[in-house]
Predict the structure.
Amino acid sequence: MNGDDLIVLRPEGLYCPAGGFFIDPWRPVERAVITHAHADHARAGHAHYLAAADARHVLRARLGDIALQTLGYGEGLEVNGVRVSLHPAGHVLGSAQVRVEHRGRVWVVSGDYKLGPDATCAAFEPVRCDVFVSESTFGLPVYRWPRASEVFAQIDAWWRANAEAGRASLLYCYAFGKAQRVLAGVDASIGPIVCHGAVEPLNVAYRASGVRLPATQRVGEVTDKSAFRRALVLAPPSAQGTPWLKRFGEYSDAFASGWVQLRGVRRRRALDRGFVLSDHADWPGLQQAIAATGAQRVIVTHGYVDVLVRWLAEQGLRAEAFATEYGDEAAEEAAAATE
């Protein structure tokens, strides 16, 4: 790292010395710019928050009554002489890349991102920069996603077969982002859709943000238990193996995640099905996104860091890493309320 870098690593997180603010800090700070509302990037305790306008409702759903300032995508803000703007990352609702410009230099901190279509959030937009700070959650050549439309068709077929057999379809998916993407993509005419108490508040926040989702009901509010026999039930992975499942009687279970592309993951979780659906870029997506920035220097924050850094260096780019606290799915699960 150079002494004049626009973004440096501090114990609290990624820091912009010229602007006096942090990006997705993991310890309490005075001013935090937030890329998105997942728990490893948006934490409680900061004095002031800046985020994309689309993230307003989900951030408040997760963090409560915070001191929040928002910007529309592409809208600029001067902070101590540093120009800050937020641009779509395509990860989840309100996810943003943070563009930081100072004295002719441009850095972009991308947070988490994906390039595939998603009806529940703004699509990823490449931002030209000198230095690009990238994730590498699925930064291995084995990770190559199928078309989302094909995955939703697979989920529909599984749900329909279960409904015809009179058993619930229990789909584990992360409460924020993945669950809403599933809701927007499945055929809601197959049967009722009910959600775990960790999922439903986020559905409310999405609808308040203008995202169209089919009708859902919190599991605990279902009075006619026979409805479960045709229902799609969305729950966070932490619900697996808990007494909460007993209310459904006979059910088939599945997990919607990029991780299930590796068969061993499904076997270890003892699931009936796995659906490959990720809110992160796959290996070709990482390559495409980085190339589109035109950056000659790339800093990798989390995931398969060493693999991506090595590949980037082989392409002639200056590649390095920040040691961050991002990518902690345990923290994301801990943020999910229990019903």
